[in-house]
Amino acid sequence: MIFLKDNIRYERVISKNDTFYYKEIEQHLALFLDEIKALHAHPNGPLFYTVNNVPFDEQMKVTFFLLVKEEVRPAGELKFHSYYSVEQMMSMRILSDFEANTQAAYSAIFQFMQASNIQQLTPPYHIIHQEGGQQFVTIKLGYLRSE
Amino acid sequence: MAIIRGKLEFQNVITMHTRSIYGKWQEQAMQLRSFIIKNNLFITGPVMVRWGKIDEATKEADLTVYLPTFQKLQFPKNDTFSYQETFLIEDGLKIRQTSANDDIAATEALLAVMAEKAALKLQKPYYYIYLPVFGEYILDIYAPVEEGVNP
């Protein structure tokens, strides 16, 4: 099910732009989290990331984001955002079989946009939730209604 | 309401310099939003505005509207729009007003009291950050602490 009235609204977010071979995402994610730990910042919400290109050559351009409790002075390629928000987003939740269901979610979202005369405005955001020992992912995409 | 001391930081900020009747910023924010979208970008934060001195005769004031975007944007230099990679104020007091329609003067008076107690000097004009919630706005007021005059 595609939910049309979603958004992202967070305070105190650290981000990092990164480029890597798609199979190395876990290592680069771990590096991002280590860099945040080195700042003595503590997670305060979900990790999320955007996929900023279509990885035809298996190279992914990604931006990682993490909510933190503290206002930190970012180091290296980390950036701090006092507020991070994106309005007017559609979303789909994925509860299992993440790789296959992510592809299916992308397909459903893009078909829906085409059928509804809606224009994609943002790259897809992948929000990774951990609740009660279970992990699930929400895909969110900002859109514009065509005039 | 809690008053928090800290920094204010945004990335890839587009700024619009204009003039408006004091209190009326929504139309200008929409203009800035359109400018950003026409340049194939999107907004990644709440609207922030800052007012200059009010002309008592016309009730108009200089208005600066700030919106952070997803990545760098280059455009020809002009008087209306400008870009900065990082917007950062290192030190200030922030207070949250649960409705943007409440009396801003009263909230700012509270800030002034806190600043005096903490022996801080605040620098006007303040920044107003509008956070959309259930069809309305919550307002965060950020008052920069003046450099060099505080403990």
In short:
The complex is a heterodimer of chains A (147) and B (151). Chain A is of the alpha+beta class and 147 residues long. Chain A is built from two helices and seven strands, in the order βαβββαβββ.
Note down, in words, how this protein is organized.
- The complex is a heterodimer of chains A (147) and B (151).
- Chain A has 147 residues and is of the alpha+beta class.
- In chain A, a hairpin with a 2-residue loop joins strand 6 (125-131) and strand 7.
- Chain A is globular.
- Chain A contains two helices and seven strands.
- Chain A has one domain (3-145): Regulatory factor, effector binding domain (Multidrug-efflux Transporter 1 Regulator Bmrr, Chain A).
- Chain B has a domain at 9-92 and 123-140.
- Helix content of chain B is 18%, strand content 44%.
- Chain B has helices at residues 26-38, 104-117, and strands at residues 3-21, 47-51, 60-68, 81-97, 127-133, 136-144.
- Chain B is globular, with a radius of gyration of 16 Å.
- The mean pLDDT of chain B is 92.
Blueprint of the fold:
The complex is a heterodimer of chains A (147) and B (151).
Chain A: E1 3-21, H1 25-38, E2 43-51, E3 59-68, E4 79-94, H2 98-116, E5 118-120, E6 125-131, E7 134-145
Antiparallel strand pairs in A: 1-3, 1-4, 2-3, 2-6, 4-7, 5-7, 6-7
Chain B: E1 3-21, H1 26-38, E2 47-51, E3 60-68, E4 81-97, H2 104-117, E5 127-133, E6 136-144
Antiparallel strand pairs in B: 1-3, 1-4, 2-3, 2-5, 4-6, 5-6
